[in-house]
Amino acid sequence: MTIADPSARDWRGMLPGLMLIAPALLAIALLYVVPLARSVVFAFVDAEGGFTTAHLRTAIELYGRDVIFTVMVALASLALISVTSIAIAGYLTLGATPWAVTALRWLYRWPLFIPFIVAGQTARSFLARNGLMNSLLIDSGLMDPALAQSLLDWRGLVLTFAWKQVPFVTLLLAGAMASVDRSTIEAARNMGAGRLRCLIEIVLPQVRGTLLVGLILSLVTIMSVLSVPMMVIAGNPTMMTSMMAHRVTYYGDYAVANALGLFSYLITAVAAYVYLRMTLTQHNEGGR
Amino acid sequence: MGVEALELQGLSIRLGGAQILHDVSLSVPAGSFTCLLGPSGCGKTTLLRSIAGFAPPASGDIRLGARSIAGLPPEKRGTAMVFQSYALWPHMTVAGNLTYPLKLRGIARAEREERAEQMLELLGLPGYGARKVGSLSGGQRQRIALGRALIIDPPILLLDEPLSNLDAAIRRNLRGELRRLQQRLGITTIMVTHDQEEALAMADTIVLMRAGQVVQVASPQDLYARPADLDAGRFLGVDNVVAARPDDPVAAATLGFRSMDARIRDTALEEAKGNALVRHGTVLDCAYTGGGYHLQLESGAEVISAVSGVPVAPGSQVCVAVPTASLMAFGTDQRLLPN
């Protein structure tokens, strides 16, 4: 052949590049894309190999409440995580008492190094009706023993997730706040803004993207943690992860578990879409 | 709020264990334009920041009008500062930047917007309100930063090297504009700069600083003609320092003068003696500088810079004369001798 096909030539030019990224692509395909596709497909396949929505219907029928519960717990946790990490990162950035800032900087990261299962176990002994928190409140005379109640329900989940994820989001947020042009903060204070207004109206809008990243990553974590709902709450309704594990271990029913997993994918996919759209908008604005 | 005078009394500032300002006292009359001038690291920006409340004083007092502001947080001081990097809020529009200080003061939206329009008019940027800050040029950003400071009608305006990030031509324009605006509004203004030309052109009073201390407070003319000591003189462009000789017209340990005052005489005229400093020397170097020639000549152990209207070949013997009025006489302690 004397005249090379131009498209074949293009392919040959791309070959070294493709070979370089092949191991990474292969790992993503084998470890992520294939299992994901498989579980999505299996959610719609019946015993004879035909298409069915029966698993999906069973999942909604049996676990619809758990899906809603999961979404509500996740949203409440994210709300608590945002408020707390904004407060901590804000104090680290704008705090005027050096020793308090140093102490806080040192303290807030600790939960990062504690596994979820330990966090769940600790929460269990801390938040129970006769747990450490209630004992402390009763002993210090702040609470009537008759009013003591267990927080081992959705509140326990929200508190545990927040406790575990706040340091992570704070870490991202404090880093982003530290790289905000300091003079924009000083200009606002100079113009008469107190520190709280500075945080909310000047600093926070400039680190909005980072906060969103932190929250989306936290959402994915909350959607996938099994140990915390297993440890913290008993009975119904509970988180979807718990129900998926239940379906698989007790019934060997992968199809319905996969159908439940589909809801997890959908929820995180919505968050990912929001995030991508926002970064694209920011990117376009930055390029203009 | 009205224009107010500023008074610094024995102000000392320590930052991270280092003493930045030593016992600085200064009084700035209401409505005046004062420049803090000095080399980098002399403490001039720290002094400005301490007035705005960003550098807590170790001792001393800052008084604005009748009240002491040294103990107040920045947001309670009412000073308006323009930052070197402009510090415009990137997430707001131009109008948002201008109206935010008014919003902080609880002024109604309609009035805020009206005042922002007026300010844009005053700054020569009408119709820019809806633009993003990121789409403005350096000069435009500078004007918006200035407008944001002026919109609250502050008792005092603090400028931290406001023109240093701009091109030379824009800088010269804005320099005049800023000065005219200041005079029109009659606002007490303190500006930090390391550019002596800028300070001389704009200020009513220049405060010359060095190593955390005030070296000299004088009008531009006085500072230029009579710098307090040799280092101050060098900072203000006195590039020639020669040891005085008994037959020089002024008695001193050392004499300083600027090369633009040192003229080359091709013939060794003795008539200049008595009302001029005269040195003979060999030309080392002659460079064209646009309007004339800049010469380096060797006179004994000293090297003198001088100007000439015509080129002079290196190696020629020449005579340089400096009129007595352009000489600055320094004593053995390097301080300027009284006339």
UniProtKB/TrEMBL annotation, chain B:
Keyword Phosphoprotein among record annotations: no
Lineage: Bacteria, Pseudomonadati, Pseudomonadota, Alphaproteobacteria, Rhodobacterales
Gene3D superfamilies: P-loop containing nucleotide triphosphate hydrolases
Signal peptide: none
UniProt protein name: ABC transporter ATP-binding protein
Database matches in Pfam families: ABC_tran
CDD domains to which the protein is assigned, alphabetical: ABC_Carb_Solutes_like
Domain ABC transporter: 6-236
UniProt keyword terms in alphabetical order: ATP-binding, Cell membrane, Ion transport, Iron, Iron transport, Membrane, Nucleotide-binding, Transport
Record-level GO cellular component terms: membrane
Superkingdom field: Bacteria
The keyword Ion transport is assigned to this record: yes
Molecular function via GO: ABC-type ferric iron transporter activity; ATP binding; ATP hydrolysis activity
Biological processes per GO annotation: quaternary ammonium group transport
